[in-house]
């Protein structure tokens, strides 16, 4: 199944449920900034490049701030969220890329809004979506722990487990247990707002947390 249309609808629902100045998990961003980021990612080449290229980050941040400023009040915010709902044009690269470019982005940003108070609010998800997010979580975990010397195993409450990395040297293995969505949020840098159980030696847990802050 293709998930990004479902996750876009979920994100739009979350945005419409909060005021424009609602906090999000994105540091310094209110709901209006997050909505502006999504719109510009899908419509502005400069902003798209700024997300990927550090030297263009300032350009992207200014563009997000300017668009967010048009959504400080209800009418402007509603119009901006409508643009999030509309998504990219049919032939935009992000539209053509489908889930590969959008599933993680839209799921994580939906939770950025829902968990803007910093509290874990994991919700029931379709089992097939759970499997897709599990795949994303394990893939991101491998990419983001390349320099971590400890072993890492991810475990879902319903049984599946993945050995992400073997330990090096004298280090042991850390086991992180949680729902697929929470694991994905953790490896995306949102660990503080997740409900995870971490098991391992104190030094190994600390080494992992330096790379990916834990709850």
UniProtKB/TrEMBL annotation:
Listed SUPFAM superfamilies: DinB/YfiT-like putative metalloenzymes (SSF109854)
Coiled-coil region(s): none
InterPro entries registered for this protein in UniProt: CHP03085, DinB/YfiT-like, Maleyloyr_isom
Domain of life: Bacteria
NCBIfam families: maleylpyruvate isomerase family mycothiol-dependent enzyme, TIGR03085 family metal-binding protein
Record protein name field: TIGR03085 family protein
Originating species: Cellulomonas uda
